[in-house]
Design a protein that fits this description.
The protein is α/β, with parallel strands linked by helices and 317 residues long. 32% of the residues lie in helices and 26% in strands. The strands form 3 sheets. Strands 6-7-8-3-9-10 form a 6-stranded mixed β-sheet, with helices on both faces. The relative contact order is 0.13.
Amino acid sequence: MAEAGAAIATRGLAKRYGSRVALDGLDLRVPAGTVYGFLGPNGAGKTTTMRILTGLVRPDAGTVELLGQRFGRGDRRLLFDVGALIEAPSFYPFLSGRENLLALAASGAPVRKGRVDEVLTLVNLQDRARDRVSGYSMGMRQRLGIAAAMLNDPRVLLLDEPANGLDPAGIVGMRETLRALAAAGHTVLVSSHILSEVEHLADVVGIVARGRLVREGPIDRLLAEGGEVRVRVAPPEVPAAGAALERLLGAGTVRLDETGSRDWLVARCDPARGAELNRALADAGVYASRIEGGATLEDLFLEVTGTAPDVRGSTQA
């Protein structure tokens, strides 16, 4: 049965390469018309998943749905509605950027007249379109790869590390382009290690570790659920401040800052409740000198994947 409202859905996706498990029952649901941030540590199974979604790799088990239809080995026409940039793009170096796109347009899904110049403008390569690709920088090649993925105006766009080689202005331009595509009803799945950019870009995130989904949902909700507020008070007032905050938030929601500071408390709650925490402290006769709120996507990622660094340091024998 088709997954309602999903542009991409996988169920129980499994893949092994010899003794190595790449995917171990992966379940994803990518809502249509969104930018979906697909995140995970190296080796978590992200690239394998994207290769399966484009028919480059066959899963050992599980199912895939694209745009409400079951996708299997004999369903290649479904890929006419999918554009993809997986790993580094490859082009003919002796041809211009425009000539490369024209060659791709003649060999794949139908591309309407004028679309080549349109996508070159979208990725801000119109001024270098007639230059040979051999003279392109890494960032320009990456932008050309994104243009190639968008050639047939796909309903689904899969991008693996699209910000590779882009300067800050290029990253902002890419973000605006992808957000505009989602606003127009396209679905964009982005795999990236630049978590701060995904936090600005994505509507929904899915985080994988060891081939399984460990967290998925709207990014605002996930950050609110994992939110924390740091509160600074005078060291002698820490016990009273902790008790006041726990009366408001519940037992076990307040701890001392992990850095060992004697005047900072960390309260687990939605960062939007900072003013409420301040009032509770004031009612208890405790006055905070500083309140900081706001969990980041990096905080969430490190927590759910178990990849946080050991800040205690190490010793060598």
